[in-house]
Hints:
Elements: E1 6-9, H1 10-40, H2 48-72, E2 74-77, E3 91-96, E4 103-108, E5 119-121, H3 125-130, E6 138-143, E7 146-155
Parallel strand pairs: 1-2, 4-5
Antiparallel strand pairs: 3-4, 3-7, 6-7
Helix pairs in contact: 1-2
Amino acid sequence: MDAKANYLTSAGEAGLRAELKHLIEVRRPELAQKLKVAVAQGDLKENADYHDAKEQLGFVEGRVRQLEAILRDAVVVEAGVGNDEVRVGSTVVILEAGEDETEEYQIVGSAEANPRQRRISLESPIGAALLGKRQGRKIKVRTPDGIIKFEIVSVR
Length: 156
């Protein structure tokens, strides 16, 4: 897999498309209306509603452009379909050396990464170390917190 490609799982693609649709069909019109009302109030220099709406609309427009670029260039992969090798979309259970409890992660592209949801990017140190490996493999990886050693318990 090309680490520079913009990989998305099919669920990730659907989520980004839903966010884009919401921004275009709901947030943008709401903010445009808010801006219109604020302009009608006059004196824009000291109109907090105007400045707030304008700033929010700028954020929405930036996110719309970002999502459109991600989706335009995306390579959509099926999550872990019949493969025992770690790849984008795989869910991997690992056991860190010296620990009693396993940890489970899904390997995703950077646009979907969310460590709190246990979705790690293939570009992260652990994600990159896991790619291409199979169950039972012991791995040592350098992270910002130091070197971590772990074993792959399962791949699905």
